[in-house]
Amino acid sequence: MADEPMITVVVPTYNLGQFFKDSAESLLKQDYPNFEVFLIDDASTDGTGKAVDAVAAQDERFHAVHFPKHEGVSVARNYGIDHASGEFVTFVDGDDQVKPAFLRMLVEGFAQGPADVVTVGYTWGRWFESHGAKQGWQAVSKRAMFDAVRARGDEIGGYVWNKAFRVSVLRDKHIRYDESLTLAEDLLFTTEAVVAGDGFWFNPAVLYDKINRPGSTIHSATMAMRQKEQAVRRQMDALGDKI
C-alpha cells in the first residue's frame, strides 16, 4: 500500500440525515486502499455529527472534523486542501454515493501521463443516464477541458465531485474555494485549476452518483445567488482568455 499514491477525500456534511450514512457506506467500500477521508461536520443540528463520529470509529482512514459554527461548503473544502496528506485530492458531497472503484480509477488517471486534473463519469438522476457509454482514458487538451467545464450539462462539467486534483498545484498556485460564494464555487475552482494545470485525462466510466436531495443548495438557490453565478461565469470567461 505504501507504494501506491495516497488520495485525500474531503466530504462536507450539514444536516444530511440518512443521505450521509449511504454516502459514507459507499466510501467504506472503496477497493483502493491508500486514502484518507476528512468527514467535516459543518455544525449540523440533526445528528449528522454523531454519524460522522460513528463512521470515523470504524476505519482509521476516516477523520471526523467538527466546525463549532456553520461555515459553508467552501470553508470545509479549503480545510481539506490545507490538511491533505495525499498527493491528490477529491471532493465528495456528503449526500452523494460513489462506486467501489471510484478512488482507484482517479489515481489510475494520474498514471496515464502528465496530469493535474483527472475526471470520471457520473449520473445525475435521469439527466445523464447515457453518460459512460464509451470507456477508457482519453487525454483532453487545456482548451477542450476549459470548454467542457464552461458548458452546462457536459459529461466532464465544472463540478469538483467527479474529479481529482494534484494537491501540489493547488497549493503552489494558491487555488482555493471562494468562501463568499454559496453557489458556483465549484465552477470557479475547477476553472482556476484547469488554467493553472498541465495535463488532463477523462474516463467516462460512471463512478459517481449525484443524488437529487430536496433542500440542497442547487434546489433552493435564490435570485441573488443566481446573479453571483453569472458573475462567476464572467470571471471564468476572463480566465479562459489566458489559454
Do you know the CATH architecture? Alpha-Beta Complex
| Overall pLDDT confidence | 91
Count of DSSP strands: 9
What is the CATH topology assignment? Spore Coat Polysaccharide Biosynthesis Protein SpsA, Chain A
Structure overview:
This protein is of the alpha/beta class. The chain has one domain: Spore Coat Polysaccharide Biosynthesis Protein SpsA, Chain A (Alpha-Beta Complex), CATH 3.90.550. 36% of the residues lie in helices and 21% in strands. It has helices at residues 18-28, 48-58, 73-83, 102-110, 142-150, 167-172, 185-196, 223-240; strands at residues 7-13, 35-41, 62-66, 88-91, 97-98, 117-124, 138-140, 163-166, 200-210. Strands 1, 2, 3, 4, 5, 6, 7, 8 and 9 form a nine-stranded mixed β-sheet that branches. α1 runs parallel beside α2 (48-58). The longest helix is centred in the C-terminal third of the chain and has 18 residues, at 223-240.
